[in-house]
Fold this protein.
Amino acid sequence: MKLYTYFRSSAAYRVRIALHLKGLAYDAVPVHLLRDGGEQRAPAYREVNPAGLVPALVDNGIVLTQSLAIIEYLEEVHPMAPLLPQDAVGRARVRALAQTIACDTHPLMNLRVLKHLKGPMGLSEEQKMDWYFHWMGEGMRALEAHLERDGDSGRFCYGDTPTIADCCLVPQVYNAQRFDIDLAPYPNVARIAANCADLPAFKAAHPSAQPDTE
Amino acid sequence: MKLYTYFRSSAAYRVRIALHLKGLAYDAVPVHLLRDGGEQRAPAYREVNPAGLVPALVDNGIVLTQSLAIIEYLEEVHPMAPLLPQDAVGRARVRALAQTIACDTHPLMNLRVLKHLKGPMGLSEEQKMDWYFHWMGEGMRALEAHLERDGDSGRFCYGDTPTIADCCLVPQVYNAQRFDIDLAPYPNVARIAANCADLPAFKAAHPSAQPDTE
C-alpha cells in the first residue's frame, strides 16, 4: 500500500494511526501542503485525488480517498485489531465521536480554510486565531460532553481498545496542543489522548516521526 | 424511531432520505434552529444531543447522533434496500463521496458557521455569501471530479441504486439551488440529483414536505 501523506495533516495522521494499529506496512509518499503553493493542488497529485486533498491510499492499484472512508476500508479488508465494536450501537457511537471531529470540528480549521480566511477574506492573524479557537472550543466541548454523557469510554474513547474515534481524537488534540490550548476543561479527552500516546502505533504515526517531518 | 429534525437541515435531510429509502417509519420531532436563539442549543435538547446539533435518532431508547453514523446504523440494523455496495472498494468509494460533502463541504456553510461569520466575525452579508459560494464551488468541483474520474456512477452516484452518497448529494444540491447556483459546470451532479428527485423516498424527505416546513 502507498499512502499520500503530509506529516502535519490531521486526516493523513488518522489513517497512519489506523495502519499502525493494524500492523499494516505502507510506503509513505509525502505531499507538501505548503511548498510551491501546495503540491496537493498540482496537476500531478490531482491525477491521484481530484479533490486535491491528502490523504489518498493506493491499494492494489486502486486509489481511495477521505480519511474515514479509508479507515473503514482497512477495517473491512483487514479485520484483525478491529477499530470498531461488534454491535451496531457501539459502532454508531464510535462513528459519531469520529464525525464530531472529522465533520464538525476539523473541517473548519484545516490549512486551506485558515489560508482562505487570511487571503481572500482579508482577515487579520488575530481574527484568524479567534476563529480557530472558537471552533476548536466548540468541537472539544461536544466531544467531552459525548464522552461524559454516553459513558462508553474506558482507557480509550469506546472501551479499552483503540477505535476509529481515537484515530480522530489524537490528531485533533495534537492541533490543540500546537496552539497551547488548555485541555483542563476536557478531562476525558485529555486522559484518552495520554493513554493513546503510550501506544507504539500512535508514536509511529505521530507528525514528529514521519519521513517528511520538518 | 424518533428523529429530531429541522426541515432545512442538510444533515437531518440526509437521514430522512435514508429512512424513506429503507421504508422505515419514524416520528419527526421538529427542532427549530432559528427560534429563540436556536432550540438545538437549549438545555432540553442538549439532554438529547449534548453537541446541540440536529439530527438525533432515538431507537429503542438509545440516542444516536451524526447523520452518517446514523445512516450506517440503519444500514446495519435494517439491511434491506442497501445503501452501500457489497464490496469493500465500492463501499469506500461511496463513503468517500458522502464525506466529500459531509466533511469537506457542508460543515463550512451550515447555519452556525454563517451566523458566526456575520455575528462574532463581523463580516458583511456580501462577504458571507462570497464565503458560501467559494466553498460550495470547491465542494461541487471535487464531487464532480470524483464522479467523472472514478467512473462508478450510473443513474445514481454509484451504480443504478441510491446509496449513502446520494443521501448527501441531494441536500447539498438543494442548498445550491436555494442560492441559484448554476449546476451546468457539474453535469454528473445535476443528472444524479434529477434522477433522485423522481423517487418517492427523496420526495418524502424533501424540506418542502416536512411537518415543520414553513
Q: What stands out?
A: Chain B has a mean pLDDT of 97.
